[in-house]
Predict the 3D structure of the following.
Amino acid sequence: MNELSTNSLTFRYSHRLILDRITMEMKAGEVLVLLGANGAGKTTLLHALSRQLLPTSGCVALSNKDISLFTRRALAQNIAFMPQYENRQSEFTVYDVVSLGRTPHCGWWMPFSTKDLIAIDASLEATGLSGERDRQVTQLSGGEWRRMILARALAQDAPILLLDEPTAGLDLKYQFDVLDRIRRMAKERKLVVVVTLHDLNHAAMFGDRLALLAEQSLIAIGSAHEVLTPNLIQRAFHLDVTVIDHPVYGTPFVVPMYPTVPKGEGTQ
Amino acid sequence: MKKSLPHHCGLTLLGSISLCVIAFGCDSQEPLSSKPSGRRSGETKAAEIVLVDRLSRTVCLSKVPTRIVSLAPATTELMFAIGAGHLLVGATDHCNFPLEAIKIARIGGGTMQGISHEIIASLKPELILGKWDTHQPLIASFERIQIPMLAIGPDSIDQLYEEAAILGRATGHEAEAKALIESMKQRMVALTSWVESVPMDQRRRVFYEVWDEPLMTVGPKSFIGELLEKGGMRNIFNDATVSYLRISDEVLLDRDPAVILVPSTHRERVNFDILSKRKGWDRIAAVRNKQVFFVDGDKVSRCGPRMLDALEEMIMAVYPEKLSQGLSHEGTVR
Amino acid sequence: MKNPIVMIVLAVACLIALAMINLVSGAVAISATEILLCIFGIEPGSLSETEQTIVLQLRLPRVITACLVGGSLGLAGVGFQSLFRNPLADPYVIGASSGAGLGVTLAVVLGLQATALGLSGVAASAAVGSLLAVAVVFAMGSMGRRNSAFTLLLAGVAVSSMINAVASLLMYLNDNSMVVIMAWLMGSLAANGWTVVLATTIGSSISYGILWAMSRPMDLFLLGDATSQSLGLDLFRFRLLLVVASTIATASAVAAAGIIGFVGLIAPHIARRLIGPRHVWLVPMSACVGAAIMLVADVVARTIVAPAEMPVGILTALLGCPFFLFLLLTRNDTHEATR
């Protein structure tokens, strides 16, 4: 029922073509990972999906209705967007920020209902922030801050979740932790999840489908095995890699062909 | 820009003949200007005194006021000059002339924000004499508590005579006011008859320095410009359309005045030495010949009854030969 | 954190106490009990007629105007600081003061100055000038492709410079009116009566209502354009309402008391220190703080050089600034460290 799709989505930024006729579909209960080199248009695509940017042509459809026909509030009830950065210089507490996730449901001035309060508590719980609710945002570590805005996106309780680099700047443990939470949410709540990631192996582990952006368009979309091939990776990242099977899970495992100076050389 | 204005000068100086433009503007706004309650309050009682002030407002008084507050030093001086000084129950901190004025209760500094409404109200005045420009916003607030206010403040010699007559009628000192006007007019004739005989081409070219930073002077439409003309001096900025204008040193050097007049109000900051050291000023004829004179600032910048003293001072400074011929002092207003 | 409701109650109690001090102090000595009896009409006979006039027609409206003007400036400050996410924004940041200046100049030059209806013609033109100037700035700032707070700020700087230039030109060409214009622009709390109180009350109430109702979007907006948009905020509508509400507050303050600096800048900061960043508490608190600053400044202005008075704007800066610096320097700096 809740499906997000793009139809021939094209985006130009002052005559520079960023995205060229992207057509794809995203399904409920599925984690779609957007991959691509820096500047390939991952964030632009995510912004277009959440109507932060208006496409030059083509459209994004939510349940077969163009998202530009929704009011901002109605859209926010359906699509939650977790940005890579936002203003952190406020004196809000974690609870303040997470509770703002309920704004699309309670509007500008209605006080929170019991349902809102339950949703806020649940998302704090789900991100392991229950004990941090009264801390100031400015005192959080990078990882805690990411979990907090994830909690806010969850509190928004939207069937579609768009996440821009949710693991950036996190400790290794939290990278897996966050991705695992996201995947669990997607399955439990039947969410449409679109994530941009940098790490190809993370993508292989947590994505149901992978989409590879390069040369302004979608050069591949499909399972990890279909997308993570040395050829496609060379095309998208200009990087020579070997792809082996993950020794434990059997998913593709990307090994870059580095260093160019083999170990042991030059040490006599 | 606003801060560098000569404040005490500015208050009294910045008004001019082109005031009639504003007065005319008021007339054309007849429906608006008919609204002030000064007129209304007069209609209910049998008004004995009907006065028209500088804003073309009609102020009606049911009887001769015995308690009057003056909001300007020049007004205070004028009140004393027509013998109505004893009616004043309140005056500003700057009302220092004549000596009796110092004893009057003070109501504050005299600017819009510097006066105390409460003190004025507690003095129970029957009339307030305010300046038409600086005190304009006060009219409404005093009308609200049923104290009529007359908006006055002359910007020319003729207006000074007019306002002396208005105050005379307001205070029941019409005869004294008339006598004052007469004697001032006579003295004016005495002062100017000699200079009038000076042929145009022999009249001295004068620069009047209103303020030094920025350098400001007067145009012919200003009150001081009028005094210069009456005193037989040729204002080197006679072609100015603005009453008080900023000028550059360059223009001043080009016009090369024979005499420079400076009011004492900024004598603390300017004396002959400082003046002559200004860039290029040593080339001005007035500076070379030491023809720089200081005029009593209180007299010249308050358009009041002592204005003729100022005129006399200026004539004496510019035409010292007149002094040697002996100047008649009859009709001096003190 | 301290309970915000308690803080608001405390602030209102402080305000009432300050208002009482203001009522009691003045150039003419009248006792507190007599003033109260007079105001509540219980025993008006104990005061002379003049004293009654002083209390009811001069002091009381002045105290209330001071509260309203300070409160409005506090509100406008919160509004504009939120709009620009910039702690240096004040009620005049996008041209309200230059608009008021041009309004007054035009009114005086065109000869509106003699009207004396409730809000005088000139005061009303000041308010209208503020509103129009901000409307022009907003229209300009929203026209471009990049409809951001930054564009609005730049448009504000440009438009208000131009308006200032036009006003200065008019003043130069009519230099005999300059003193009149300055007298109106400097303004004075003392010149106001009950009609002005009514007009200012209406203006500041509308503004308060809108701003308070927008407290959640204002919280949200603080997090950034992208975030607030993705959480359902229609940025254009939000900015428009915020500008309208803040400018109504500014305009009513300007109409009642001329341009008073600093209150609108520091009241929100002080309020934020006292009650935290959430606008649902910040909006009322900032109004209270603004009103309190004005009351303190006014009582000092009336007593320090009695019987003369001081321009209240001088004192708002003189008294507000040290307090503001104290709060600034004593705050816990934890978030600077993690920046």
About this structure: Chain C touches chain A through 29 residues (CB under 8 Å). The first helix of chain C runs from residue 4 to 24. Chain C has a mean pLDDT of 85. Chain C is about 75% helix and 0% strand.
